[in-house]
Design a protein that fits this description.
By secondary structure, the protein is mostly beta strands. The protein has two domains: 89 residues, Elongation Factor Tu (Ef-tu), domain 3; 70 residues, PRC-barrel domain (SH3 type barrels, Roll). Helix content is 7%, strand content 49%. It has three helices and twelve strands, in the order ββαβββαβαββββββ. Strands 3-4-5-2-1-6 form a six-stranded antiparallel sheet. Strands 10-9-8-7-12-11 form a six-stranded mixed sheet. It is elongated.
């Protein structure tokens, strides 16, 4: 397995209780598919990739509290704090047309309908108000709402996004 070819689904926040459970901060829209007893997730420690098998899962305040096979003490759980949880790409669920995984948009070239380069997608941020592209432009980051009426063409395979931005949007962070 190659770490950089895997997809992040969460990060272990901290130990929970004294029986080796941990709380996970999610980085997936499919928590029930990723976090269930028997699920396999992977972490990297140093240059080693380790497989973790979940033994039990419950959700508290929309975050999973998980038990991990072989981790049964608070010390064992604390040693996992901060580690990113990943899965192989071939375990991702298929998405409907017009939907994209965030990692597929990172690295896409963003340009206007007229062909002017805006920049390259550095990340995708999601808030209660929706998702937006964080585009690294020549003058710094440009935030572009990930909305169909603004992002008129999204070609994740071709690594290209065409935007029809309202007047002034691209200049907000200049």
């Amino acid at each position: 397995m190659v770490w950089d070819e895997m997809v992040a689904v969460g990060r272990i926040a901290r130990a929970h209780g004294n029986r080796g459970q941990v709380i996970v901060n999610l980085d997936t829209d499919f928590p029930d598919e990723r976090f269930h007893p028997g699920a396999e997730l992977f972490v990297r420690r140093g240059d080693r990739i380790e497989r973790l098998r979940l033994t039990n899962v419950r959700f508290h305040r929309e975050r999973p509290v998980v038990g991990i096979d072989g981790v049964d003490t608070i010390d064992g759980a604390e040693a996992l704090a901060g580690l990113e949880l990943r899965i192989p790409r071939d375990r991702l669920a298929s998405l409907p047309a017009g939907a994209f995984y965030h990692h597929d948009l990172i690295g896409c070239r963003v340009e206007t309908a007229g062909g002017t380069l805006v920049g390259v997608v550095r990340s995708v941020d999601t808030t209660a108000g929706g998702s937006h592209l964080v585009v690294q432009g020549t003058g710094g980051d440009v935030l572009i709402p990930l909305a169909a009426d603004i992002c008129t063409t999204v070609d994740a395979q071709g690594k290209r996004i065409v935007v029809d931005a309202p007047a002034g949007l691209l200049d907000l962070n200049a």
